[in-house]
Amino acid sequence: MPFALDQIRKLGQRGHTVFTADTFLAAPGNHSRFVEDAFCVPSPRFEPEAFLAAIERIVREHRIDMILPTFEEAFLLARERAHFEPDQHVFAPDLDTLETLHDKARFQRLAADLGLPTPPTRVAENLDELRTATSAFEHWFARPVSSRGGLELATNHGPLAGVVAPDALDPTPTRPAIVQAYVEGTDVCSLSICRDGEVVAHAAYVHPKEIDHAGGIVFESVDAPDTLEAAQTLARRTGYHGQLSLDFLCDGDGRQVLIECNPRATAGCLVMSAAQFERAIFSPAPELEVAPAGVERKYASALLRDIVLHPKEAPEALSHLLGRAREVYFDRDDWLPGVWQFISAHKILDYRASSHSGDELRSDLMAAYFHDVLYDAEAAPDTRQRAG
Questions:
Q1: Is the pTM value of this prediction over 0.90?
Q2: What is the distance between the alpha carbons of residues 284 and 271, in angstroms, rounded to a whole number?
C-alpha cells in the first residue's frame, strides 16, 4: 500500500529501525532506504498459518518490539496475538472490535446506537430483499458488508450509476449487502491513531482527484472537527487501540454523514507529519495532535494514467500533477520506491492472468494489490489451535 511506504519513511526519519514484510518483494516500500531488511511472506488470506509462522520467525529473530499492520492482515495478527510475547506489541485492537467496525451492517447499528449521523440503511440477505431495499429509496447505493475500497459498489445515481448491477452483489445470509440512501455531498475521510480508547492523532482530508471515482490519488487535509468527534466517540466506546479510518459525506447542510469505517491504516497518514505520527504510536503519554489543513499529497503515476486513459479529465489531472502537492512515491532522499512502483506492476499483470472466483465486480488495478491481504471472517481458517 502507498501509505505503508509513507509510514516506513516517517518512522525511519524519526530514528526507528524498520523491517518490512509483504507478499511480494517488488512492493515499493521494501526498497526504501529506511528499511533495515525486507521479507517476502505467504499470503495472510490464502496461507494464514504460513503467514503467521513467517511473521513469528521474523519478530523473534530480529527482536521486533512493534508489529504495525497496514492493511487487513491486522485481523489475523489481532486474532493470533497470543503467539507473540508481551513486548512484541501488535498495534491493533481485538478481533471482535475489528470485525464489528469492518462489517458495514454491524458498524451502522453501532453508529446509530451512539447517535452518529448515518444514511437510512437496510440490510439484504438475498436478491429479493436486495430488490425490496433498493426500491425503498429514490437514489441508493449498495455493497457487500465486507467490501472495501469502493470495489463492489452498485448505485443508481452519480458517476458510478449502473457500472455494477445490483444483482451481481448476490447477497447471502453469510455475506449480506447493505443498501443506503444516496447522500449528495463531498467525500471527507479521516485517520485516527488511537491508544487504549483515546484518539491521540487525527487527520481529516478530501480527495480533490480520484481514480475511476473509486479512490483518491490527490489528498488535501481539511479542518473537519465533526470527524474527530465521531472518531473519539467510536474509540471510547470500543476501547480502540490502533489505526482507525472513517469515511463521511459532507451534505449540503455541512453535516458530516458517517458512511463506513476501515479499522486499519489508510491514506490519512500522508497528511500527518513524521513527528505527529511517531509520537502518536510511541510516546508514553501522547497528547492529541490534529493535522493542520492545507497539506497536499499526490500519486503522480496515477495522475499520468488518468491523462492517458481519460482525455476529458486531462486538464484537471495535469493541473494536479503540476501543482504543489508533494509526491508520495518519489522522494529525492529516497528515490528507489518510485522506480519500484513501476516494477511492481507485474502484480497487476499476474492478477489479470489469474482466475479469481467472485472477484469480477471491481477494478483489477486496485484489486490486484488487495486480493491476497484481505480478511474474510467466513473463509479464514481458524489457526488458534495450531502449535505455537
A1: yes
A2: 23
